[in-house]
Amino acid sequence: MAAAVVVEVVNKIKNMNIPYRTSGTQENYHAADLTFRENGDIVWTNPVTNEIWEVMMDWEIPIMQKAAEVCVEAGDDVLECGFGMGILSDAIQARNPGTHTICETHPQIIPKLKAWAKDKPNVIVIEDKWLSLLNERKGYDAILMDTYADPDLHPHFRYFVKQKAKDGAKITWWNFSGGTTDEYMRFYWDDVVFHDVAISPPENQYYNRKVYHVPVKIYNRETGFGVLSNSNFNTSETEAKNLEEARSFLICDISNGTKSVKDVDGVERLAMYCEGLYTLNESLVIAGSHSIYVKRNNQWTTVKVNELVVGDKLYGKDGEVELTSKTFDSSETTRQIYKVMLNNYFVNDILLKGGSDA
Ligand SMILES: C[S@@+](CC[C@H](N)C(=O)[O-])C[C@H]1O[C@@H](n2cnc3c(N)ncnc32)[C@H](O)[C@@H]1O
Predict the structure, then answer these.
(1) What pTM, to 2 d.p., does this model score?
(2) Which domain holds residue 197?
(3) End of a domain among 171, 188, 219?
(4) Looking at ligand 1, which residue's alpha carbon is closest to its atom 9?
(5) Which atom of ligand 1 is nearest to 147's Cα?
């Protein structure tokens, strides 16, 4: 996320004046001795202010159960951030996830998490903050965020989700709205759905209402089609350039084979991100949903790239080109692609259908 955007987000949060789960002394929490009450509640005393702060309390059980119910399905790859009392962890386990990754940072809670995880083969314990997972490639079907005194949350959570959520993943987080304001935490997603839960909390520092709203965002990856950003776009019969440098496109009227040069001005080019790209003839990297010309039954027609088979004849700039190899990158590497809103243009000497209806 660009620095300016981070600043803007942080300012927005400040403006919302939400009393979220932090005392403002985030470092002190991680250094503090926690108290584990008889009923399991976790509290700590801030040595600077002598205030007692609750980290997690058992009245939240119905909230945690609802969060697991609306986000987790059997077989899912689940990421849970913040173990606390393990209430949410139990609720997630009860739904039989495929894998259940749990991040925890407090030195007194990590041993509790490890003991709890011992007989659960699908649990992966991460003794580190959730942000550290940006370095691994795994994606998740559900991300349940409930940390405490966490300075990474507001600046990085949205970006993190973008990197780690699989298409259609369900995301939930602690909704700080409850204390004194009617503002709900949406993380600036405009399509968050709230599931109401009736609760009866005893007087506490962070939530004293009778209803809690479990937020759920279904994360749909931006989709689209196009070719890799550094592809060679044919700009004339003799030249090809990458999209930033191209000032024209070589296009073709497929009915009579006439080629012409179209000025780049006025041609819309959309940059987007995509994973799961095909490489044709070891050079043209293209999204599977892109339409491309192919000769079938002795006629030129269009198919989606993912329907091509080796041996197909493609429409080349200088004649038919045999498709000799087609490989698919199934990794979760996200790469920038360009969609050109133009019918019938050549990339790497191969004619693509393009345009808005491709
Ligand atoms: C409110 S509790 C979680 C309660 C839990 N959902 C439950 O059902 O019991 C918050 C937990 O997040 C942990 N935590 C704080 N910052 C963290 C971070 N950056 N990454 C992972 N865990 C963190 C805290 O140590 C604490 O155990």
Answers:
(1) 0.66
(2) 60-219
(3) 219
(4) 85
(5) 12
